[in-house]
Amino acid sequence: MRNNEKIRKIERLFEGGDVDLFEILHFLIEEFENYKVLEFRSNKGLIKFYRKGDLIFMDFIDSKGIKLIKKNRIKYFFEIIKLREVEKLELINQRWSINQYY
Questions:
Q1: pLDDT for residue 81
Q2: What's the rounded Cα separation, in Å, for the pair 2 and 34?
Q3: What tens digit of pLDDT does each residue of 7-37 get?
Q4: Which burial class, exposed, middle or buried, applies to 80 when counting CB atoms under 10 A from its CB (0-12, 13-18, 19+)?
Q5: Angle at which helices 3-13 and 21-31 cross, to 10°
Q6: Cα 81 from chain centre
Q7: How far apart are the C-alpha atoms of 43 and 12, rounded to whole Å?
Q8: CA distances from 54 to 29, 41, 80, 97 (A)
Q9: How far apart are CA 82 and CA 31, in angstroms?
Q10: Could you tell me the pTM of the whole model?
Q11: Positive or negative: CA dihedral 101, 75, 63, 44
Q12: Please, are residues 100 and 17 in contact by the beta-carbon 8 Å criterion?
């Protein structure tokens, strides 16, 4: 996928402003194959999805720079909702914006 297409898809996701984690997961299911790294930011911190080979990982770094979720391997994106840390940190209800992608 060309960079211009990636930009348009990300812009469409955030047309109405910040999004919740469900909208991000839906986007990841449909589009993550076209990216190596996607980072989203909220008031609580940064959530990062990245690929190493065929494997997908997730990190969550709080606003103080502490990695609370580190190299969590993701097989299916819907598993993220069930993670104890995601529930404990109340990440589902956070509003997210794009931080970085490539």
A1: 86
A2: 9
A3: 888 889 898 899 999 999 999 999 999 999 9
A4: buried
A5: 150
A6: 12
A7: 22
A8: 15, 25, 18, 26
A9: 21
A10: 0.85
A11: positive
A12: no
Single-letter amino acid code for the residue at 79: E
Q: How many residues does the chain have?
A: 102
Residue 41 is encoded by which pair of tokens?
Answer: 């930011």
Residue 95 makes CB contacts below 8 A (sequence gap 6+) with 17, 18, 19, 20, 42, 43
Token duo for residue 10: 């990300």
Percentage of residues of the chain with pLDDT beyond 90? 51
Cα–chain center distance at 38: 6
**CB-CB neighbours of 72 under 10 Å:** 15
Q: What is the DSSP letter of 33?
A: G
Q: Which amino acid is at 97?
A: S
Euclidean distance between CA atoms 58 and 21, whole angstroms: 13
Adjacent-strand bridge partners of 67: 61
At 35, the amino acid letter reads: Y
